[in-house]
Design a protein that fits this description.
The chain has about 450 residues and is an alpha/beta fold. It has a 6-stranded mixed beta sheet with strand order 4-5-13-10-11-12, sandwiched between helices. The protein has a 4-stranded parallel beta sheet with strand order 8-7-6-9, with helices on both faces. Helix 3 runs parallel beside helix 4 and helix 7 crosses helix 8.
């Protein structure tokens, strides 16, 4: 089991109060002397550690975005577009529907390339410069490649992205292509792409910037800092729970590190740490399996499939950091169907928040856990949405309202609009009446409404 305890000991390898620590064997390494992703001794995951941890007062008058929190990062500034400072939306309709004290949606799709990955890249590409490499590489389900390509271009560095052929949304490939990345489509899944990128990195051919790289997670932990600051400003207290989609489990690990550092610094108490609650698609749920079975590690799923391409991952590399994060905060994990994800995507769109399918998994998970009584009505909840709607325009088009063909005539269009509106209003009135009648089973739910709609249309 990983040892994620933060101590006061500063090893001799520290550089200006920053070092790398193995979470398995405890070995320490200098942060920038060599390119290193895992422990030299045991191949365990590494974590960035700091001699001095800031409190909220240290962030005052520091601007906005990721680098507002430079006191928690390895550098004072990075390769920036800039990133962070994403909205914490209200969602009153969903809040009322699920029945919680409050619900906010942290929309990471509002970052420069449309996903949370920008937070990690602003730090990671800066570290690549510090260690003296000029070729970057990642495996990706889409968002990582878009972010790496943009930040690599900003840093004037060559970028390679390996994608599973035919499994990445067009919007994400287009971003990487336009930012001049070399796109290599692999006949395999994401996890196999990551195996190859790790091999390239071990051979010294490229600097790996997947979330296996501990510096990536440093940028991503600023999501937690923003959530905590803004939520406290609005409510005078911190959220009880953060629900988030899980693919490689990087955000889960990063948020847990954020909260551990805040507790260590005295900025919050242990009982103020939000419960981390992970959500995966049913077709790609190794983290959920591990939580439900009480396992200390995940089992690699070789075959994964879901509409939520950004979390179509069967071997979450950050599981050793993320599983303790869920358990130690009193959280849980749940798997949701593609249908539940699409329904949540539509509901978020109804609040004016446009997200890709994987992002909507957080709301789908909230619904499922609230229905099961795992989440209480008095909880203040934040759902993390990780990518913008336009990341996957095909999925958005399938989930959204279909175009209606009309004649090239204003009067005909008005007649069409009035006709559709009057039928919809009649359906609404009839459904309202039926709710108070003994025949409610006949018209309850989508099937009854659809039947009534067809009958009314045929009368017209």
């Amino acid at each position: 089991m990983a040892d994620l305890q933060l101590t006061d000991h500063v090893p001799r390898e520290a550089d200006d109060g920053v070092w790398l620590a193995c979470i398995e064997c405890g070995e320490s390494f200098a942060p920038f002397d060599d390119v290193r992703y895992t422990c030299d001794d045991c191949d365990g995951l590494l974590e960035v550690r700091y001699a001095d941890l800031p409190t909220w007062e240290d962030f005052e008058d520091e601007g906005r975005g990721v680098w507002r929190y430079h006191e928690t990062l390895p550098f004072e500034e990075g390769v920036s577009l800039p990133e962070g400072d994403t909205p914490l939306h209200r969602a009153p309709g969903i809040e009322d529907e699920v029945g919680v004290e409050s619900l906010r949606v942290k929309h990471e799709g509002m970052n420069p390339t449309g996903s949370f990955k920008d937070r990690g890249m602003t730090v990671g590409v800066r570290v690549a410069q510090a260690v003296g490499v000029d070729r970057l590489a990642c495996a990706s389900t889409g968002n990582t490649s878009a972010a790496l390509a943009a930040y690599g271009a900003r840093g004037r560095m060559e970028t390679l992205v390996l994608l599973p052929a035919g499994k990445v949304a067009a919007g994400k490939i287009a971003q990487a292509a336009l930012h001049n990345a070399r796109i290599l489509e692999v006949d395999g899944n994401f996890d196999q792409c990551l195996d190859i990128v790790q091999d390239l990195a071990q051979r010294g051919e490229a600097y790996l910037l997947n979330s296996l790289n501990p510096f990536r997670l440093e940028g991503q932990k600023t999501i937690g800092l923003e959530i905590m600051e803004e939520h406290y400003a609005d409510y005078g207290e911190y959220p009880d729970r953060i629900v988030l989609p899980v693919g490689n489990a990087g955000n889960t690990a990063a948020l847990y590190k954020c909260f551990r550092e805040l507790v260590k610094a005295g900025a919050i108490t242990e009982d103020q740490v939000p419960k981390l609650t992970g959500v995966q698609a049913e077709g790609a749920a190794p983290m959920v399996e591990a939580i439900e079975e009480g396992n200390d590690e995940t089992r690699r799923w070789e075959d994964v499939e879901t509409i939520a391409t950004a979390i179509r991952i069967g071997n979450p590399v950050n599981a050793p950091k993320a599983l303790p994060g869920i358990r130690e905060t009193g959280g849980t994990a749940v798997a949701v169907s593609d249908e539940e994800i699409t329904d949540a995507q539509r509901s978020l769109a109804g609040e004016g928040v446009g997200v890709e399918p994987a992002s909507a998994a957080s709301v789908a998970g909230l619904r499922k856990l609230r229905s099961a009584g795992e989440i209480d009505s008095d909880e203040r909840v934040v759902c993390l949405t990780t990518g913008h709607l336009l990341k996957d325009p095909d999925a958005a088009a399938k989930a959204g309202r279909k175009p209606e063909p009309v004649p090239n005539d204003t009067d005909a269009i008005l007649e069409h609009i009035d006709d559709r509106s009057s039928v919809a209003e009649t359906v609404r009135r009839q459904a309202s009446k039926a709710a108070d009648s003994p025949l409610i089973p006949l018209v309850a739910g989508g099937l009854g409404a659809a039947y009534l709609y067809r009958k009314l249309r045929s009368k017209k």
